[in-house]
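Lay summary. Proteins are chains of building blocks that fold into shapes, and those shapes determine what they do. In this project we predict the shape from the chain. Here is one chain we studied, written as its sequence of building blocks.
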Amino acid sequence: MKKIIEVLRLKYEAQLSHDKIARACQLSKGAVYKYVHLAKAKGVTWPLANDVDEAALEALLFPAQEKPQRYVLPDCFQIHQELKRKGVTLQLLWAEYVARYETQAYRYSRFCALYRQWREKQKRSMRQLHKAGEKAFIDYCGPTVEVIDRHSGEIRHAQVFVGVLGASSYTFAEATWTQSLPDWIVSAKQSALLHFFDRRVPG
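And here is the predicted shape, written in a compact code that computers can read:
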């Protein structure tokens, strides 16, 4: 027990100094000051009510602290699956995570770090070496881009063709109105011109 009642009795009834109270109760002067200060802050007056004992006084002055809430780990597999959907970003998934778990949610930076750590453990890849000028990877990317006619204000959506060379990673991108065969052929020919630069990179 902390001898709080005895400290208060000697303080207010015997009118002793904190130094004398500390020696009488075999406590430090800091502990005596703390008990007296907390009692004042909690509105405890002397003499105490008849039903107040040492245990009740200690519980009043030193309430049990609640354990901090544990953070909820994000479901990294679910995050990985959701990121495959068009338009889904880590920022969006984190916002949904925070809305669900509130104070138990990690901050965005930690959320991303946990996902990256999980993703690194899932990687099963084979290193591939590409000779200069040997391969090019071409396709249309999923999202389109808005093109606004500055005269009429009409908005059209253009397709984005992307070509990447294997050895150098030089990238070619071109916007076209469609993914039709004529547009595809023109873009592919433009992309092929990068092979000249790709050959200059040691294979």
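What the prediction tells us: The beta strands are 136-140, 145-148, 155-165, 171-176.
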